[in-house]
Amino acid sequence: MKIQKTGTRLDPILESVAAHAIERRRARGGAPVADPDPVRGTRFVRALGTPGELSFIAECKRRSPSVGELTSEVDLGARAEAYARGGAAALSILTEQDHFRGHPDDLIAAAKAGLPRLRKDFLLDVDMVVETVAMGADAVLLLAVCLDDAQLRDMRAAARELGLAVLLEVHDEEELERGLRVDPDCLGVNARDLRTFEVDLGVTERLLPLVPPGIVRVAESGIHAAESALRMRRAGADAVLVGEALMKSGDPAATLRQWRAFVGEGQP
Ligand SMILES: O=C(O)c1ccccc1NCC(=O)[C@H](O)[C@H](O)COP(=O)(O)O
User: Fold this and answer.
1) How far is the C-alpha of 166 from the C-alpha of 182, rounded, in Å?
2) Is residue 35 over pLDDT 80?
3) Closest Cα to atom 19, ligand 1: which residue?
4) Which CATH number is 160's domain given?
5) How confident is the model at residue 165 (pLDDT cuts 50, 70, 90)?
6) Which residues line ligand 1 (CB under 6 A)?
7) Which of 8, 194, 221 gets mutated to test ligand 1 (max ligand atoms within 8 A of its CB)?
8) Which residue among 75, 130, 168, 251 has its CA within the 20 to 30 Å range from the CA of 214?
């Protein structure tokens, strides 16, 4: 498995992701296989593309490298259901094990909420795309920061063949240009620089308007208040992906409802 080293804080995460993927491959006894299903990806993309509305992708993550522990919850199913009650359009499930304390089984646990699910992880090769189908996800995250052009192309092609939607994540103009070349369903601008963990919503404001029409525009990270969600809407986001603020909320359903109402009232 090829890892694109960045020489930054991201590398230890990529190394442990690769180690777990190799372990799963060994346990499985070879490369994963999966059947195509054109419906799964379409369901994810449609959920985010409600015209005139900002959609919320609510994230389940137990821990983050930048903040530390976010919850002691074992079963994330109840949380996923609370997100659904709050009006989330889709779920983002962190499946990385060592730095976020996630697990592929979390995708299964979250299924009972009945929402489309994104596997949020640091996918490194085609096999990791293919194995996502058995985990029950509808979409995969591909990160321009840790994949070269050939990896992006091959992993995008595998996702398309299986009917998985692709959320392609970028943090600067060069990554945006490379990401757009593989024709993603959704383009996410992450306000967090994954190499330094620094967050700047100005990056999202700068890059989102450069995403061509027809691609769902997602603002990711650093959205800690309803005002920031509205700010992202004004920058052109079709959807926001929110993790930490919802994980820290005592009542995530109520928080989501409040934020959605606030953005609805503040839109032109
Ligand atoms: O969350 C982190 O600290 C982090 C560190 C290094 C790489 C990735 C990281 N997070 C992944 C994400 O992109 C976020 O979980 C997601 O966008 C939600 O962000 P937030 O609302 O700020 O929790």
Assistant:
1) 10
2) yes
3) 221
4) 3.20.20.70
5) very high
6) 59, 61, 64-66, 190, 192, 194, 197, 220-223, 241-245
7) 221
8) 130
**Predicted pLDDT at 77:** 96
Domain count, the chain: 1
ipTM above 0.95, yes or no: yes
Q: Give 131-181 as a DSSP string.
A: HHHHTT-SEEEEEGGG--HHHHHHHHHHHHHHT-EEEEEESSHHHHHHHHT
- 28, part of any domain: no
Ligand 1 atom closest to Cα of 9? 6
| Residue 176 token pair | 């945006």
Q: Does residue 15 register a pLDDT over 70? A: yes
**Which residue bears the tokens 């372990």?**
23
Closest CA to 20 of 89, 152, 106, 123: 123
- Please count the residues of the chain: 268
Domain with 209 in it = 41-266
Comparing 267 with 119, which gets the higher pLDDT?
119
